[in-house]
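Lab notebook, bench 4. The sequencing result for the construct came back, and we need a structural model before the next group meeting so we can plan mutations. Quick request posted to the team channel:

Model the 3D structure of this chain.
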Amino acid sequence: MKILNTISILWTWKFWKYALILAVIGALMCATLIWWANKAAIRAAEGKLYDNIPDMPLNKGDKRVALVFGCAEKIGNRDNLYFKYRIDAAAELWQTDRIRGFIVSGDNGSDDYNEPEDMKQALIKKGVPENKIVCDYAGFRTLDSVVRLKEVFEVTEVIFVTQKFHNERAAYLAEKAGIDFIGINAKDVSGKAAQKTNYRERLARVKMLLDCLVSKSPKFLGKKEELGF
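Done. Here's the predicted structure in token form:
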């Protein structure tokens, strides 16, 4: 009996020892993947993103399409500041007379949730003509928005409009898709909401990397569409 107990104790000790080693190795691999994905996004965006519109290399004869990435207009009963600041940046960009028009790309996965239409109406209120705004209703993810930009709307030169962290991820996806891009960084958000977003962004960048490695396709590609501007 003593021998069996000793064997049981040794087996249990070895089991937890190896389990701990595997857990440490797994944690190190995850940390390395997160670091690598983050660096890849930052590197892709280097020298391509601007905090101030006057600093952007835009000429009157070289007008680009601007892509505004979608998010919910409201969080419960409160205004979503990510949405507000993106619209503010887009409206300011329109006033420079350096762009042809906007693609507003977001989630319209249900009848009562329509990010592109909300963005369109917000831009119209800011003075952007309705005929200069095209809705991409199948921008379910950043990857979908970027790939559809080229494959559906046939745009290969673009200005991204969103917060810096999001622009960096979009930059990596655009680089892989062969899109010539620059980006304007909308005002960022602070507080608890920003902290949660930053945590999610770490995982989103890992998924960005893995999606590109396996050549992930958009949820819905569809046929080509004319911008009309």
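Residues 2-45 form the longest helix (44 residues).
Will bring this to the meeting.
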